[in-house]
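Hey forum,

I'm writing up a methods section and want to include a predicted complex as supplementary material. The small molecule is coenzyme A. I've pasted the protein sequence and the SMILES. Can someone with a working setup run it? I'll credit the forum in the acknowledgements.
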Amino acid sequence: MNFHTRKWVKPEDLNPNGTLFGGSLLRWIDEEAAIYAITQLDNQRVVTKFMSEINFVSSARQGDIIELGMTATHFGRTSITLRCEVRNKITRKSILTVEKMVFVNLDEKGEPAPHGRTQIRYAEEAFASYRESARQVPQVPVAVEDERVAARVEADSLH
Ligand SMILES: CC(C)(COP(=O)(O)OP(=O)(O)OC[C@H]1O[C@@H](n2cnc3c(N)ncnc32)[C@H](O)[C@@H]1OP(=O)(O)O)[C@@H](O)C(=O)NCCC(=O)NCCS
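Reply by user p_vandermeer:
Happy to help. Structure tokens for the complex are below, copy them as they are.
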């Protein structure tokens, strides 16, 4: 398992008990896992389908450094299954493991699509390939995004 990402636990990441808020950690895990999945599958249209139960076995405090590790455990037809572990670099304890996270590869219509991958590609190779495919995804033009934001602001102001 590769531990690529480290996080520094800051005041905004804490719960009222003064320890790392589970919601912050889950957001980091989902993002890290999504990056892993899109680089493995060469596709930005990948969504979280399933996460197995999560057992927080230890925590972290402000100022601690934690690291997130991911590995692919199964390549399906349209899905990829990952295992995740989070460790506290300061206490040297495991914080949690997620045995199974499933991501589904989608086509332009948002339907599950075969990805054709069967084995893990390591970081450099995965990113080299991803760089090419990332350029092919149409970006939302700024003017369109501005209109969407303006529409949302107007709708919110009506409530
Ligand atoms: C992802 C989505 C398109 C899949 O639709 P679906 O009808 O379940 O698709 P399928 O039944 O064809 O399954 C697709 C893959 O997911 C797997 N899968 C489906 N349900 C699963 C479950 N409960 N647990 C694990 N894997 C599951 C299937 O085995 C299949 O994988 P495979 O092709 O490698 O065998 C649909 O469920 C969806 O849009 N969900 C919302 C996703 C989302 O918004 N996520 C949060 C934000 S990223």
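Some notes you might quote in the supplement: The longest strand covers residues 94-105. The chain has three helices and five strands.
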